[in-house]
Amino acid sequence: MKVNSCLCFDLRTGSIIIGSLEVVTSVIYAIVTTVLLGMETCSIPNLKDILISLVFSLIVLGTGLLLIYGSIKRISLCLLVWLIFTGLLIVLNLFGSVATSVNTGLQWTDIIELISSSCIEGYTVLVVHSYRLAALKDTAR
Fold first, then answer.
1. Among 33, 72, 82, 111, which residue's CB has the most CB atoms within a 10 Å radius?
2. Residue 98 has what pLDDT?
3. CB of 11 within 8 A of CB of 130?
4. Are 40 and 47 in contact (CB under 8 A)?
């Protein structure tokens, strides 16, 4: 399955926008995590979770930058790395949501959040995948 555009933008611009949004959100997340890390009220168990979140946000930052670079330069390997990482994140998010709902009980707001975030993430994957296919087609010529 593939698309021909990202909302009202071409696939290249859409991929750059997706990467830019990912970079911005991961930087904000890293800043918030660093502020939490600097708070004196953090206990040791929370410290571990905060460090994991910080490392995760830095990895997301790196893949977002790869997506931007790969989109600008038409490097399909960079796009593939982003696709694989994002696909893994979608699967982990689904498993995490199911595990959380088993422990705390399933609420309709959780279902709506899970469905909407999965649809948005799925669409971004579809846009980048379509752009990667177009870039591969162009380089084969």
1. 82
2. 79
3. yes
4. no
* CA–CA distances in Å: residue 66 to residues 2, 12, 33: 21, 14, 22
Phi-psi region of 89 (alpha: psi -120 to 50; beta: other; left: phi over 0): alpha
Ranges of residues in the chain whose predicted pLDDT is under 70? 40-46, 141
| Cβ-contact 82, 66 below 8 angstroms | yes
Tokens linked to 81: 């790395």
- Per DSSP, helices labelled H in the chain are 11-38, 44-73, 76-104, 108-140
Q: What is the pLDDT of residue 42?
A: 58
Return the exposure string of 63-100: e unless at least 16 CB atoms fall within 10 Å of the residue's CB, then b: bbbbbbebbeebbbebbbbbbebbeebbeeeeeebeee
> Of 54, 31, 121, 137, which Cα lies nearest the Cα of 82?
121
Looking at residue 40, its pLDDT comes to 59
**Joined tokens for residue 57:** 């946000």
Q: What is the pLDDT of residues 28-58, one digit of tens each?
A: 988 887 787 777 565 665 677 778 888 889 9
